[in-house]
């Protein structure tokens, strides 16, 4: 098996993608009315957003750089 090195640049690009996915999940939650019809979609959007932000944090802990303009 060939060992591959993951660069800081690649980690940072992955982190930015996670941040975008997390924001999209948040936007979906804001757009859908909280009712029985949308309950499953809202739950999935919330879970996806939470996981994206968790992965974003893990990537930062492992060498990714915070995107320009990122505020905690």
Give the key terms.
72 residues, mainly alpha, elongated
Q: How would you describe the overall organization of this protein?
A:
The protein has 2 helices and no strands. Helix 1 packs antiparallel against helix 2. It is mainly alpha-helical. 65% of the residues lie in helices and 0% in strands. The longest helix is centred in the first third of the chain and has 24 residues, at 8-31.
Map the helices and strands.
Elements: H1 8-31, H2 39-61
Percent range of helical residues? 55-70%
- Beta fraction of the residues? under 5%
Count of runs of 4 or more consecutive helical residues: 2
Mean pLDDT comes to 94
Radius of gyration: 15 Å
Outline type = elongated
End-to-end separation = 39 Å
Low-confidence stretches are: none
Structural class: mainly alpha
SSE string, helix = H, strand = E? Answer: HH
Q: Sheet bearing the most strands, described? A: none
Number of strands: 0
Short description:
The chain has 72 residues and is mainly alpha-helical. It is 65% helix and 0% strand.
